[in-house]
């Protein structure tokens, strides 16, 4: 099944939930709205023609370029992306799903953007989502155990957000 | 259970169960964790009722560093991820960068990278099975495995000057070309390894103590392996026929004749056995590749402006001078497209993927790593539940958890 026909089928199945696509990129991707993510993922996993039974990776990317010169070059608007890389061990194909979120929920700094969890679809998503929450600051609704995983429990901030500042001290250890 | 719980109310049951269970700290410093990781075990007598992994002791912000160091500098950091097989990490990182830049490697470079990847796979599997033997009481076996690892270290030292942290690859090429001395050493290794391998097999494959401790322990079904994201030898020991070297051939894997090793049992012994057989398949690849290395340059064409040109070119051609200048000046460097790629390679431990976002400069905007150990360690509580405390080391050993890669 080619990328284009597959996308058409997905769009027919979930009208309005597939909000964008880029088939000319190096890794072509499909954008899914947060409220349709779980449905789409369950379909992708169970559909006999798709069978995406392996979730390779969930990555959080924070797009924010404070330098106006660089920002003009990249053309990025400030936003946060959660990227899902799927593949099928049976059909040997891959797919990239994206959920595009505002950097802060309702544009209130400090309120983390929200995505529904897919940890009940693929169990491996459990730790991936904890890592994305910990480092990139995305809140996964419905996650069974959303705690920090790599940083300490009392760590402040999410280190891979572009506006993160290293703390001056942590329990008496000098930071910067 | 010490008493009939049917008459107690649920809160009391939970409380009495909590009192009844032992809580044991496994790690962070423990000889069998090999590095720094911690598991809180809940024990009922000797049975493990629950295991709660606690990681992050070795978190050193590798992904954050990836946003500060340029594409060539970051290779030194990838060395320190899975330090058991740094060459495989180097190759994985630069495969991703080259996919981002759209570079096509020279045939010679592809062959050399394939050889070092497979040598790294052998050395990784040697450590894994060796340590697994050590943890279950087979000390001799461990020494046999480590002697062969030492030979591979020697090959790498001759190749690039470093034994442990190789940093051998560069964007679009390699640090050094392979020399006749290295070829000779690899040939000798290919010749000698099967005998050592037979010794190792005879020591452990039918050793009753080892087989009893690993057979039927830490069962992972095929469905669960996929659902929990297992890749590499661990998935293949559960019957998943997925090997990126065959499914999506990269480097020169298409040119070689080798088999994907699979088992169906999905227990610790199957994982041990798959790793053992994979070493032989890797040796087959090395054997075929070392005799057929194509001639030609190891780096991509100078016009790509992606790596430092040869000194002879710098002194004798204007193109060489310009490229050298562009590469050395910190604010010039090479340019990458504003794109993002996910590139996965079959590392010894499983699928090692890098998700690189380029912003046009010579530093990655985001360098996400998908480490196999991280995913495999997440299934540890599932694998160990119901087994005994002494099985913890057997399961940990069979998963080959490298904490530096786990925490990054």
Describe the fold and architecture:
- The complex is a heterodimer of chains A (176) and B (408).
- Chain A has helices spanning 3-13, 37-46, 68-74, 125-136; strands spanning 18-22, 29-32, 54-63, 79-87, 94-101, 114-116, 139-141, 169-170, 173-174.
- The longest helix of chain A is centred in the C-terminal third of the chain and has 12 residues, at 125-136.
- In chain A, the strands form three sheets. In chain A, strands 1-2-5-4-3 form a five-stranded mixed β-sheet. Chain A has a two-stranded parallel ribbon with strand order 6-7.
- Chain A contains four helices and nine strands, in the order H-E-E-H-E-H-E-E-E-H-E-E-E.
- The longest helix of chain B has 29 residues, at 107-135.
- Chain B has two domains: 5-54, no CATH class; 62-406, Cytochrome-c3 Hydrogenase, chain B.
- Chain B contains 18 helices and eight strands.
- In chain B, the strands form three sheets. In chain B, strands 1-2-3 form a three-stranded antiparallel β-sheet.
- In chain B, 49% of the residues lie in helices and 12% in strands.
- Chain B is globular.
- Chain B has 408 residues and is mainly α.
- The chains are: A alpha/beta (176), B mainly alpha (408).
